[in-house]
């Protein structure tokens, strides 16, 4: 990372903030990111790229399309979708779409990768291999996840490695987190319907109360990790939905529970899933109710390739300083469909600290806003990775 490039990144920051704010103002859900796609395509064409559309609203572009298959290609990925949730800020660029908001920072990730695209275009002749820019829809999985569709449509064809990043408010600005191996969790979703026999609330003895049975299941499921895996756990089980009844004097016939399981190692995953099934079946039998349990597999565990993670660490030591590159707090129990790329080719994913003194609203909070101050760090990381990996 030379002084001149650092100065270029700093000079580019105001334009990238403006792009980010525009995308923030017009959020779009997974596979609906048509305006965002068009903004990306127009920008890339203006800077000499020949972008292609994949997965309906995804975009890929090669820095040197004539070198694809002839030289090493690495890919850089940004997610472009928003969340189906409200925005509670009074920002001048707040969402204009009710119930849709960029509350995970994908607007910032997109702006960062566009900045990288511009800088790579300026220095095209000095980049020895090829860089593929990957702008991916539906990371939030509102329609099942965009990464598998991008892979199916050829996003990784002739790509040797892929890198991704995420802003992370729980981590102080100026820090960067990366490690080899598990970075984010394997996700399973819980869908549970408990069927009993309803009746009048004054005569519970004539009923098979699904609420009481389901409440005991919620309590018992909290022991799956604490009593099933031991002190180092390596998994999380959270019940996040409990829906039952329509009025105060009727015991309903059914109760519905929803939740999530997060895990990092195959053996822990296997054990947790077994224990969840045992707890639900045993509790249902004890209370004389029926339980229909579905454990739906979501995103796989995100595994960083050791060599790729080492490259990120090398670059980060130059960008943020050796003392600011950490592994503490990793892995985290979030899920990410970047994991699908890592199943296909070597990859690395890292977290860029975005927290400010006094605390910052975290991702998926209605008050969250991407911290524009980290744009230079994120751009610098991607640029450094390009030259580190293509010089080898």
SSE layout:
Blueprint (H helix, E strand, L loop, with lengths): L2 H23 L8 H13 L5 E3 L3 E5 L10 E7 L26 H17 L7 E7 L10 H6 L8 E12 L3 E2 L3 E4 L1 E10 L3 E2 L9 H12 L1 H4 L8 E10 L5 E2 L2 E10 L2 H22 L2 E8 L4 E3 L1 H14 L5 E2 L12 H6 L2 E9 L19 H16 L2
Helix pairs in contact: 1-3, 1-10, 3-10, 5-7, 8-10
Your description of this structure?
The chain has 2 domains: 3-184 and 301-390, Aminopeptidase (3-Layer(aba) Sandwich); 186-297, Alpha-Beta Plaits, CATH 3.30.70. Strands 1-2-4-3-5-16-6-15 form an 8-stranded mixed beta sheet. Strand 1 and strand 2 form a beta hairpin. It has 392 residues and is α/β, with parallel strands linked by helices. 34% of the residues lie in helices and 24% in strands. Helix 1 packs across helix 3, helix 1 (3-25) packs across helix 10 (375-390) and helix 8 packs across helix 10. The protein contains 10 helices and 16 strands. The mean pLDDT is 96. The longest helix is centred in the first third of the chain and has 23 residues, at 3-25. The protein has helices spanning 3-25, 34-46, 106-122, 147-152, 210-221, 223-226, 266-287, 306-319, 339-344, 375-390, and strands at residues 52-54, 58-62, 73-79, 130-136, 161-172, 176-177, 181-184, 186-195, 199-200, 235-244, 250-251, 254-263, 290-297, 302-304, 325-326, 347-355.
């Amino acid at each position: 990372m030379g002084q001149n490039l650092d100065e270029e990144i700093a000079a580019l920051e105001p334009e990238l903030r403006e792009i980010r704010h525009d995308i923030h103002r017009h959020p779009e859900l997974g596979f609906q990111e048509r305006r965002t796609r068009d903004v990306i395509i127009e920008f890339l064409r203006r800077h000499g790229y020949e972008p292609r559309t994949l997965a309906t609203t995804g975009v890929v572009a090669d820095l040197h399309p004539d070198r694809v298959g002839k030289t090493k290609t690495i890919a850089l990925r940004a997610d472009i979708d928003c969340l189906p949730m409200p925005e509670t800020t009074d920002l001048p660029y707040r969402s204009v779409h009710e119930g849709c908001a960029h509350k995970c920072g994908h607007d910032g990730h997109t702006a960062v990768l566009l900045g990288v695209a511009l800088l790579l275009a300026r220095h095209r002749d000095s980049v020895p291999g090829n860089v593929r820019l990957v702008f991916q829809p539906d990371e939030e999985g509102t329609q099942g996840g965009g990464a598998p569709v991008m892979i199916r449509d050829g996003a990784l064809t002739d790509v040797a490695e892929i890198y991704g990043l995420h802003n992370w408010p729980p981590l102080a600005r100026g820090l960067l987190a990366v490690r080899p191996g598990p970075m984010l969790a394997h996700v399973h979703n819980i869908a549970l319907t408990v069927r009993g026999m309803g009746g009048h609330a004054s005569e519970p003895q004539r009923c098979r109360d699904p609420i009481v049975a389901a409440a005991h299941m919620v309590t018992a499921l909290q022991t799956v990790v604490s009593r099933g895996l031991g002190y180092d756990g390596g998994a999380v089980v959270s019940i996040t939905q409990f829906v039952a009844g329509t009025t105060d004097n009727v015991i309903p016939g059914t109760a519905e529970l929803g939740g999530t399981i997060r895990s990092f190692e195959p053996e822990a995953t296997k054990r947790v899933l077994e224990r969840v099934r045992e707890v639900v079946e045993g509790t249902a039998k004890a209370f004389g109710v029926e339980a229909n349990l579905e454990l739906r597999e979501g995103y796989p565990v995100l595994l960083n390739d050791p060599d790729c993670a080492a490259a990120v660490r090398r670059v980060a030591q130059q960008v943020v300083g050796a003392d600011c590159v950490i592994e503490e707090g990793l892995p985290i129990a979030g899920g990410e469909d970047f994991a699908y790329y890592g199943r296909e080719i070597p990859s690395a994913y890292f977290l860029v600290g975005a927290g400010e003194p006094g605390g910052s609203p975290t991702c998926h909070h209605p008050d969250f806003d991407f911290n524009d101050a980290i744009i230079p760090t994120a751009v610098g990381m991607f640029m450094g990775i390009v030259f580190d990996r293509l010089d080898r």
